[in-house]
Write a structure and sequence with these properties.
Helices cover 5% and strands 41% of the residues. By secondary structure, it is mainly beta. Strands 2-3-4-7-6-5 form a six-stranded antiparallel barrel. The termini are far apart.
C-alpha cells in the first residue's frame, strides 16, 4: 500500500514563474494586478497586491505579458480561467483554458 499523503495529485508538474499578471473579474469588470507564483500546463497560482473577493467557481480572464515584454495581451486574447482555490484573500489558483461560449463557437 502506498502513502498517498506524499504523492503529488497534480496531473502536470508545476514550475516557478514570477511575472506580472492581470485578472479581469467578470462579475465587476475590474482588473486586479498580481504576480504569478508558479504554473503548469493547466493552471497558474497568483498572488495579488490587494485582497480580492474572488471565490472558487468564478470565471475570470487572465492577461499575461507578451513574449516581447511590450505589455499585456489585448482584451481579445485574454485567457479564460476558473478560480479553483483562494487562500487568505490574496493568493488564488486558476484552471486555465476553460470552455466558454466564445471559445466553443470558434
Amino acid at each position: 500500500m502506498t502513502d498517498n499523503k506524499n504523492q503529488d495529485r497534480r496531473r502536470h508538474p508545476r514550475w516557478p514563474i514570477e511575472k506580472p499578471v492581470k485578472v479581469r473579474d467578470r462579475t465587476t469588470g475590474r482588473y486586479l494586478a498580481g504576480q504569478s507564483l508558479d504554473a503548469s500546463w493547466s493552471g497558474i497560482r497568483l498572488r495579488f497586491t490587494n485582497p480580492t473577493n474572488l471565490r472558487p467557481g468564478q470565471t475570470v480572464d487572465v492577461s499575461l505579458p507578451d513574449d516581447a515584454q511590450r505589455g499585456f495581451l489585448r482584451s481579445e486574447a485574454l485567457i479564460p480561467a476558473a478560480v479553483v482555490r483562494v487562500d487568505n484573500h490574496d493568493t488564488i489558483a486558476l484552471r486555465l483554458g476553460i470552455d466558454t461560449p466564445q471559445r466553443q463557437a470558434a
